[in-house]
Write a structure and sequence with these properties.
By secondary structure, the protein is of the alpha+beta class. The protein has helices at residues 8-34, 40-43, 82-85; strands at residues 46-47, 53-54, 86-95, 100-105, 111-115, 128-136, 139-147.
Length: 160
Amino acid sequence: MGRSQESFGKKEVRNKREKKRKAKEQKRVKKKNEGKKNSFEDMIAYVNEFGVITDTPPDPDNKQDVDPESIELSATKNTADAADFIRKGVITFFNDSKGFGFIRDLETGERVFVHINNLQDHVSENDVVTFETGRGPKGPIAMKVKLFTEDEPKNEESSE
């Protein structure tokens, strides 16, 4: 009495679902019976002396003994002067109303973003400036931007 009101379409949908469920169950059982035996040994990977991942273990005859006392650990000293971090560039674009611009590094040709908060002198386009680079959210930014002034050699004699 429970299924007497089912239409032909509902019976077809129910039969298709049942066939699909049985086929899926058969696939799962078949895969379980004939499938690979997953063991820990099958999952191990080795790295050879060239850095290539392989499934063969290393040959113990090729093992090299290293004397732990011969290993030297040290940190390299930073010998760069502070002057190396100061760059020289030309202001290619600067918008006073929006407060930002770009500097083209004279050494590398790289464009560096500059914000008005990082300016120490008033600048305009085509001014030569010195600056330090830092990391911003979208790339390199210029910090401590100053107008570049050539240090004129001081003469002992002065014209009065």
